[in-house]
Amino acid sequence: MVRMIFLGFLLLALISALVHAQPNDGDPLHVQVFEDYLETVIASGPQLTSLHIAIILGEVNARFADVMSLAAFQPDALRTTHLIYSDYGEYYIEAKIDGDIVVRDTNTDDLVTTFNGHSTYVWEIKISDTADRVASSDDEGNVLIWDPFTGTTLTEVTSFNQRPAVSISWNRDGSQISVVFADSEVVSIFDSSSGELVDTITTPTTAFCARFHPSLDRLAVCDLASTLIFDFITDSVTDLVDSQGKPLESTRLEWNADGTGLAIATLDGQIVLWNSVDGSLNALKGTLLETRSLQWSPHEDFLLGVGRQIARVWRMSDKTIVDTLDIPPLLAVATWRTPYQVTYIDALGYRQTTQPYPTQIPATTAASTPAPTTAP
Question: Between vectors from CA 287 to CA 281 and to CA 291, what angle results, nearest 5°?
């Protein structure tokens, strides 16, 4: 605790130095917003898990060192914390570090609506399968369900928990939403229409992420010490283990569309695929440290993993890496724009979109590893 407070004061001193080092034509508001947010984070430190603290305190020095070394950058892009496209391609959602959310038309980039329900950092944004509702959660424990075309709040989850809501997920029919609050050993399940609590699931240690299975009968949970599959039908729990019989320590996970595969990010940087049919577990090539998100492409030909400073794209047909993207270490933003293209914010703060990834290895190069296909 003492060490954390010391690091916190050191961090604020560095940020203060950065504020005063800004050129006259710089963006002190950008730094001020970040400074205010980090003060809040440090003040609520005891409510956060050790991984949260490691991510925030461990990366911010590198983050601001990068900013200070840039001759020119786009402050507005660097404030972006989330970028997500609807599967139907109608719109995309962008969230800023202060909680502002806008919805834009994917084709024209015209503003569709704004959502003003959050006044602090947004942890997760999830679009329902029908794309007509969006769920978002913030640093004060608010979980809101809203209309992406009008910006109207439809449901506010009834919770007295003021800790950050770090993970949310829809079930397939959109009737329920799971929520994980920071430093909690409980996954809460709410009715998405009324916002009322309908069930809770207790985990052995602090939960970090939860995802509904597409069939509605299971829930996958990572609690840092293990990866658990809760079966609502049999009222049983499966604890996934590695090849040596040790619990699979994980930080992120994501089901594919039919629920036969679960992508898992382990604490040591491995990305593994669990086959829910035969129970097999297979590791993908390469590592991804401090994974923030795992995203299947809309047609599931690829898997995108967003980690610290880089994002990786794996092709599922041969389980190889087809691209590695450089991204900022703190505000890591990358998402599927189309079934074959990723849009991301690069290390300099510019928004980029990759060239389409090939779904199959060309016959002439089948024996070699494909080169990255990122557009300049």
Answer: 90
> What is the sign of the dihedral through the CA atoms of 315, 318, 324 and 327?
positive
- Find, among 73, 131, 80, 129, the residue nearest to 101 by Cα: 80
**Strand locations in 100-259, DSSP E?**
101-105, 111-115, 122-127, 134-138, 143-146, 153-156, 165-170, 176-181, 186-191, 197-202, 209-212, 218-222, 227-231, 236-239, 250-255
- Token look-up 């980690």 returns 307
Distance CA 240, CA 226 (A): 7
- Flag whether the pTM goes above 0.85: no
Task: Please report, in tens digits, the pLDDT of each residue of the chain (376 residues total).
Answer: 434 443 444 444 444 444 443 333 334 444 444 444 455 444 444 444 444 444 444 444 444 444 433 333 444 555 788 999 998 789 999 998 889 999 999 999 999 999 999 999 999 999 999 999 999 999 999 999 999 999 999 999 977 778 899 999 999 999 999 999 998 999 999 999 999 999 999 999 999 999 999 988 899 999 878 999 999 999 999 999 988 899 999 999 999 999 999 999 998 999 999 999 999 999 999 999 889 999 999 999 999 999 988 999 999 999 999 999 999 877 789 999 999 999 999 888 788 999 999 987 765 544 444 444 444 3
Neighbour tally for 278: CB within 10 Å: 7
CB-based contacts of 181, cutoff 8 Å, min separation 6: 141, 159, 161, 163, 164, 165, 166, 188
Q: Is residue 279 classed exposed, middle or buried when 0-12, 13-18 and 19+ CB atoms within 10 A define those classes?
A: exposed
